[in-house]
Amino acid sequence: MLLFLCASFVYPQASTEQSKEEKAKKRELKRDAALNLWRLKKSIEEEGFYAARVALNIWRSTAIDAGTFDQAKYDELKKQMYEKSVKKSLQCFEYYLEETNFHDAFMCLQTWKIHSQEIGIFDQDKYEALRDKLKDARAQEAEAEKKQSDDKER
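Above: the chain's sequence. Below: its structure in token form.
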């Protein structure tokens, strides 16, 4: 009987200590999730797509571990990230088109297409118009090069 009495006094202390450790761990997980959310927002503002994508995945993982994950917030941040990428991809397309770097312009166009499809804002008519613009620029460049080589032969 004395053994059971001693055990009952020891057991509540062990469970209290464990719950304090659990609380401390939970608090640390929530702090990490909040810090990673801040890093994600900063990454979306200041960095490129792939850095933001990594930050999004890190935040998602830590928020799930902390029990604070919000799917609506995740979807909104993902949408912001993709919208920025779509905008930058169009700028990239126009820049490389001006520089007559048609391969890179095509890559920017494909990035625009894929990322706009991902968030449901893809416009097939706009894509075809941009693709035709690239095709025309290639044809004009080829024609200019041919004319230049003909002039050199004379």
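The helical segments are 2-46, 49-66, 71-98, 102-118, 124-153.
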